[in-house]
């Protein structure tokens, strides 16, 4: 039987648009998202900038309330938690942020940064708290010698290790990692990713790993969800989504990833998207991707919103042509396919 830690049902998050005036508009940042996360697994979340990944992460991380929908965590609905429940949840759910400098208080020593959560939650204080902090820092590859120093004295990679130690010192069950390596040098990225994977094994955590680099997400994820304009348009195992993408948006994202094999790389066709991401204030009608989809069939795609279709073994795609696939001859891309 599946051991589900987190279940998200029709989760929606809208922000009031600034300067909305009389006819207040809303930013549809996350729209009716559904998925489940098994205990101990990593779900990767990809999609271009502005498509709602961080908002979804913040809502799941209890940093922002959902507008509607349900979040079931460890068997109970946490969408409308009381203050006391929220406090307890903040111990079990943690977020690791992209910018390891901005998320660490520059006026606090590393000791205070890592000990603070233990104190705040009444788990330990004094020498005991310090010992727990040092054990966590050790797991993150840092020694006791860092305790009296300040964040500015460390490199980006080391700061991210400190941020990870702070987030994980409470032994959370669920961790949202929001582009945790995007701000780091490529040479450091692999080290931090491997650290996150080792810690997951060690502490048995479940991850939502947000990224825009398809190769990084592929490396860490068991399953992958692809987001476009606030919706999850495709979700499946890493093999299903990367090996047999069934949504045109996923195909486009994958077409821009270089392939290590030179022969395959020569044959790779990069697909260019028309125009910019539409505004989440007024997403397109029908399929939200229809204004940029190289395979869109009008008027079907501009008028009818595609349902989420299971194309096999839990691999879901929200495209009218998910079952037959858009590579068949009837659905040749009519425009820009560039090399
Ligand atoms: N606090 C906020 N208030 C209003 N709009 C927001 C807020 N946070 C994010 N947005 C908007 O929501 C959309 C999704 O943003 P975000 O979740 O940051 O996307 P991503 O992480 O995929 O880049 C964007 O259009 C963004 O401008
Ligand atoms: S439903 Fe139509 S527009 Fe949307 S992704 Fe599929 S083919 Fe493209
Ligand atoms: Mg983001």
Whole-angstrom Rg: 21 Å
What does the largest sheet look like?
8 strands, mixed
What string gives the helices and strands in order? EEEHEEHEHHHEHEHEEHHHEHEEE
Please give the CATH architecture of the largest domain: 3-Layer(aba) Sandwich
State the share of residues found in helices, binned by percent: 25-40%
Stated plainly, the CATH topology of the largest domain is called Rossmann fold
CATH level 1 name of the largest domain = Alpha Beta
Low-confidence regions: 334-339
Number of domains: 2
End-to-end Cα distance, whole Å, is: 46 Å
The helix/strand class is alpha/beta
Portion in beta strands: 15-25%
Number of helices: 11
Instruction: Give average pLDDT, whole number.
Output: 91
Order of strands across the biggest sheet? 6-7-8-3-9-10-13-12
Question: What would you note in describing this structure?
Answer:
The protein is an alpha/beta fold and 339 residues long. It folds into 2 domains: 4-243, Rossmann fold, CATH 3.40.50; 247-339, no CATH class. It is 31% helix and 22% strand. It is built from 11 helices and 14 strands. The protein has helices at 53-60, 83-92, 110-120, 126-139, 156-168, 186-203, 214-220, 238-243, 248-255, 262-267, 300-303, and strands spanning 4-16, 26-38, 42-46, 68-73, 76-77, 93-96, 174-178, 206-210, 223-228, 231-237, 270-271, 309-310, 316-317, 337-338. α6 (186-203) links the parallel β7 and β8. α3 (110-120) crosses α4 (126-139), α3 packs parallel to α5 (156-168) and α4 (126-139) packs across α5 (156-168). Adenosine-5'-diphosphate (ADP) binds next to β2 and α1.
């Amino acid at each position: 039987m599946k051991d589900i830690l987190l279940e998200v049902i029709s989760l929606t998050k809208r922000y009031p648009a600034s300067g909305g005036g009389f006819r207040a508009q809303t930013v549809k940042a996350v729209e009716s998202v559904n998925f489940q996360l098994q205990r101990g697994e990593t779900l990767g979340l990809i999609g271009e900038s502005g498509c709602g990944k961080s908002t979804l992460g913040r809502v799941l991380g209890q940093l922002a309330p959902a507008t509607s929908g349900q979040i079931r965590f460890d068997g109970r609905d946490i969408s409308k938690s009381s203050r006391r429940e929220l406090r307890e949840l903040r111990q079990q759910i943690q977020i690791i942020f992209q910018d390891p400098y901005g998320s660490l208080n520059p006026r606090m020593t590393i000791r205070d940064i890592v000990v603070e959560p233990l104190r705040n939650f009444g788990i330990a204080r004094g020498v005991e708290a310090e010992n727990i902090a040092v054990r966590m820092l050790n797991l993150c590859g840092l020694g006791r010698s860092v305790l009296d120093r300040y964040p500015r004295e460390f490199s980006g990679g080391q700061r991210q290790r400190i941020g990870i130690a702070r987030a994980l010192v409470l032994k959370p069950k669920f961790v949202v990692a929001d582009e945790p390596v995007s701000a780091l040098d490529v040479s450091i990225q692999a080290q931090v990713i491997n650290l996150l994977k080792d810690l997951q094994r060690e502490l048995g955590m479940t991850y939502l790993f947000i990224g825009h680099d398809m190769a990084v997400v592929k490396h860490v994820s068991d399953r992958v969800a692809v987001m476009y304009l606030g919706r999850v348009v495709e979700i499946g195992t890493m093999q299903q989504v990367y090996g047999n993408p069934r949504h045109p948006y996923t195909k486009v994202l994958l077409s821009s990833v270089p392939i290590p094999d030179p022969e395959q790389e020569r044959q790779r066709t990069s697909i260019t998207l028309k125009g910019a991401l539409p505004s989440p204030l007024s997403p397109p009608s029908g399929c939200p991707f229809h204004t940029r989809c190289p395979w869109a069939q009008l008027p079907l795609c501009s008028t009818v919103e595609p349902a989420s279709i299971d194309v096999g073994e839990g691999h879901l795609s929200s495209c009218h042509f998910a079952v037959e696939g858009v590579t068949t001859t009837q659905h040749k891309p009519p425009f820009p396919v560039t090399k």
